[in-house]
Amino acid sequence: MMIQRKIYIICIEDNPTDLGLMIRQIGTSGLDFSYKQIQTKEELIQELKASEPDLILSDFSLPSFDGMEALEIVRKYLPNIPFLFVSGWLGEEAAIEALKRGATDYISKNKISKLNFSIDRALKESEERALLDEAEKENETLKSQLIQAQKLEAVSLLATGVSHEINNPLTIIINYAQLILGQSKDDMILKYASNILDEGERISKITKDLLRLARQEKQVFSKVRFHDVIQRTVSLCEQLFKKDTIFIKLEIIDSLPDIYCVPQQIQQVVLNLLNNARDALNQKYPKFDSNKVILIKAGRLKRESKEWIQMCIEDRGIGIPKEEAKKIFSPFFTTKKVDKGTGLGLSVSTGIIKDHGGELYYESKENEYTRFFINLPVLPERRLEENVSSEENFAQPE
Ligand SMILES: Nc1ncnc2c1ncn2[C@@H]1O[C@H](COP(=O)(O)OP(=O)(O)OP(=O)(O)O)[C@@H](O)[C@H]1O
Ligand SMILES: [Mg+2]
Question: Which residues surround ligand 2, an ion (CB under 5 A)?
Answer without folding.
Answer: 276, 345
